[in-house]
Amino acid sequence: MAALEVDTAPRTVLTPVQPKDRIYNLDVLRGWAILGILAVNAISFAWPFQLTMSESPPPGALGQADVIGLWVTDVFFADKMRTLFTMLFGVSVFLVGGERFDEDRGKLLRRRLLWLLLIGLIHGAVFWYGDILLHYAYCGLLVMMMRSWSARRLIWVGGSITLLWGVVATAGYWGMANLPAEFSAKMQAGMPAADPAAIQAAIDLYRSGWPAGLLANLETWATFQLMASPFLIVVTVPLMLLGLGLFKSGYLSGRSPLWVYLLVLLAGGANLAAFAWFGWQEAMAPEGVDPTNGLAAAAGGMAPLITLFYATVLILINRFGLRVLTAMFAPVGRMAFTNYLTQTLIMVTLYYAPWGPMWFGTHGPAEMWMVVGAVWIAQLIWSPLWLSVFSMGPLEWLWRCLTYGRMVPIRRPAPVTVVP
């Protein structure tokens, strides 16, 4: 979400978004995040909830290509893209709402978040239970009260809590893998099981069409909202604060000292390399065997550090004048809201909407990756084409109209010809 130009009169007035008003690094990071999010979300569109929540699929259910596909998703995308998009959402709270003393922009921000809350309700309850917009909306309402904190305070508070959760996750994953045999057996007995009969029943239900599929999605969404989403606030809000702190400090704009970026590259790159190596060993081992003794899972506990590694790579590429390598992500990021919801429309159509081919439950991770790749190509193509004519994405425009309570311009201004 880009910064909005707001005048100082009592009535807030929107002016068309011009290319100079965009923050290029944020657009690139947002584009990278929104594409990567689909790689993680694909399994939730294509598989029953019972299977995605189980510790492992039924024995023999995955071929070698599927195992590799899951390894790629887990190592390079899972938790990293959500983390990045969450941090960027924290930045958008400030870009739209400004400082807390700015009452006009504060009212604008509240209306924007309340409309997002409604859109998230519809998106999750009707189309796909994995919606994140509702969660972002009420977390954003909390973050807006802290948006005027200094960069140092935001980084210390958001970063410290995020680091704490990372340490807890890392230690927890390693500890679970190294429990005494009797305790491990008891823990495994309490884990969700991938019951083939229950999975097949869920597949048949979704593929029976609507309203059965709609009701199944609604039930899953309601369960997630009641049982999981509220508890994620303590993870999401600190990430938003950290992202805003990094923006205010100049880190996300490429203005921090080079040694800071190099330090993050070293730490995040080492974490990613360790996760990839240990994760590969575990993926290639016989089923039920972990030759890393928990190091594979533990290496994934610090996902935000890998997220910062990705962000830093893209920021440094831009800082050193190599924008040609990142330019393809910027239009996708400028239309992130449209592209996120379009991903849902495409995936729902392909997997369980009655007007689509009903692929639900028929694709393994390898086949899902082919679908993800096709959607990536489509969004990389249509985003710059749309923005060559219009100043924002169609759903960004709708959201902005709802926020302002009136129609706002969407077409790019015609170039001004100067006659000598």
**In angstroms, what separates the terminal alpha carbons?**
38 Å
Low-confidence parts? 1-21
| Helix and strand sequence | HHHHHHHHHHHHHHHHHH
Helix content: 55-70%
Q: State the total count of DSSP E strands.
A: 0
Strand residue percentage: under 5%
Mean pLDDT: 88
Taking the sheet with the most strands, its summary is:
none
Describe the protein's architecture and organization:
The protein is 67% helix and 0% strand. It has 420 residues and is mostly helical. α1 (24-46) runs antiparallel to α17 (365-387). Mean pLDDT is 88; it is low at 1-21.
Please describe the topology of this protein.
Blueprint lengths: L23 H23 L2 H4 L11 H13 L3 H18 L5 H25 L5 H11 L7 H27 L3 H10 L5 H12 L4 H16 L5 H17 L8 H27 L10 H5 L3 H17 L9 H6 L1 H16 L13 H23 L6 H11 L16
Give a short summary of the structure.
The chain is 67% helix and 0% strand. The protein has helices at 24-46, 49-52, 64-76, 80-97, 103-127, 133-143, 151-177, 181-190, 196-207, 212-227, 233-249, 258-284, 295-299, 303-319, 329-334, 336-351, 365-387, 394-404.
Key structural traits:
disordered N terminus, mainly alpha, 420 residues
